[in-house]
Amino acid sequence: MMKKIYLVILCAITVISVYAQSGIDMPKVPLNRQLFHDNIDNAQKNIIHLNSPSDTVFTATNDLDINLQLTQFLHVRIDNMQASIENDSLMDDSQKFRWLRGINDLLNDFIDDYRFKKIKGILLGDLITAFEEAMHKEMQHQPITPVIENNELEIGKILLANFALKNNSGISDSKDLLLLKTCERYPENIMPILSQHPSVPFADSLLTVMAYRNPEEFYNYASAYDALSKKIKTVKDPLVQTIVTMATSSNGRFFFPFLDDIYHKKLSLDSLQSLADNEFAYYKLLVKTQISYAMRAQQGDTPFVMHVLTEKLRSKAIEIFINEINALHDEKDDAVRFKKTDSLSATELYYLCVLGEEEIYTSSYLGVYKRIWQRMTVERSDTLLNLVHYDYYKKFIRMAAAYNVLDDFLKRMDQEGSQTLMKNFVNDLEKNNSLEDAVDVADSYASITDDAVKKLLLNQVQHNLEQNIKSGNVRGQKIYFLLNKIFSSADNGQTATLSSLGIPAMYNMPVAALKNAAGRIIIEQFFYGDKDGINIFNSFLRSYTNANWKIVRKNEWVEVHSVRGTPVSIYSNRPLDTEKELDAEAQHDLANYLDSLGISPTVILHRGHSYYVKSTIQQLPTTAKVVLLGSCGGYHSLDQVLNICPAAQIIASKQVGTGVVNITLIEAITETLRQGKDLIWPTLWQNLQTRFNGQTKEKFEDYVPPHKNLGAIFIMAYNKSMEK
Question: Which of 124, 328, 505, 632 has a Cα-to-Cα distance from 650 of 20 to 30 A?
Answer without folding.
Answer: 328
